Fold this protein.
Amino acid sequence: MEDWEERQIYGACCYIHDFFCKQMPVIMISNDPNIIESYGCVKVGVLVMTMAGYLQSCWSEFREAHELYDSISASLAELKVSRGFRMMNLSGYSRGKEYADHLPVDILAVGIKSGTLIQGCLWVSKYRSSIEAYVQQNDALNSDTSIVSEFGILIPGMKHRNRAVHGDIVAVELLPQSQWGEKSNALVDDAAEHSGDMDSEACGGEKLVPSGRIVGILQRNWRDYVASLRDDEVSQSKSPGKVLVTPYDRRIPRIRISTRQAEQLKGQRFIVRIDSWDVDSLYPNGHFVRSLGPCGNVETETAVILVENGISVMPFSDGQLKELPVNTSENPWVMEEEEIARRRDLRNSHLIFSIDPKGCEDVDDTLSVRQLPNGNIELGVHIADVSFFVKPQSLTDREAQSRSTTVYLADRRYDMLPPVLSTDLCSLISNVDRLFFVS
């Protein structure tokens, strides 16, 4: 960080401290000892400390934060060591590379535009993750799609995958036709998957498909990954504090993390993140985020499903709940007479019923059947009128857009709308007045 940047950040801290009439201290975080020495004692009420010092002083009981900080610090330290080895290689020291270097971004752009490289999304086989992956081509971004098979471009083996992870946007160079592989129909067991020694010739195939190798990564799509630690990984680890964890998603390679709690992580599900993947490493480097609980526990496995599918289950905010009406025994919600007058009242003219199972709380649709005077049978479909309560672009509307749907699991559900709507005012339950659309 430049000197002028340090001065600006410290000046902003002083301004905030004065703006609030010096009623509360302001803390500037820096791991640079020179910054701490220069600004640590300049102004009373403006503190300068390291992240470790901040956690110890202000959040000493927040164990998860300390564990996360230790894991990230160890990962960053390992990254610096790895970069140091690379600089040594440039200076003449020898250290073998596991993968080829990626091409520069400008070279990739030219290659994609000219058609010599193909851009697409990497999709790894769930059942042969170490030996088979495909790049699904984006036709709009590539000039020549005639040679691409219905499966996409086969990327045989980890070497040709070149440190790309499932979901990454990559650039592919086609291999000569003599090196094209076959789409395999054989399954690979866990032991073979984890060995990493298998190649595309290990399994028989039926159809020759265009094959290629990844020469660059245009966009990383890393996310939170649920992982576990095999017992033998702790005992076989050659580097103290570094272990290989196995992601829950078979399409993700094992991840090397630095942690001081390897023994405690045995038999646990936990979340990790990938930080980097160097050319001289068989596996990506990452860090521990937080533990979900013991393997096999119902709550733990439920959390795994949510994390792996990117489902947010945060509680609805106070702002969202304040937008909605209240319906309690002390303060029941009642339809306004003007609203009743402008709608068609079917309470006494139709037999309305639900086909949802007994005990269902979120009855968002119902049916009605009646015989018309001309002898025809009228079938009515009734949908709860959510729009009466949720206005466009309101906080509740935006949250519903983000969640997209109610998520149903075997023993629970996570609602798209707050319970006052989903299981009450917008649930067409028996013997209560409700608003709905009909078709």
Notes: The two ends are 64 Å apart (CA to CA). The mean pLDDT is 85. Residues 63-90 form the longest helix (28 residues). The longest strand covers residues 285-294.
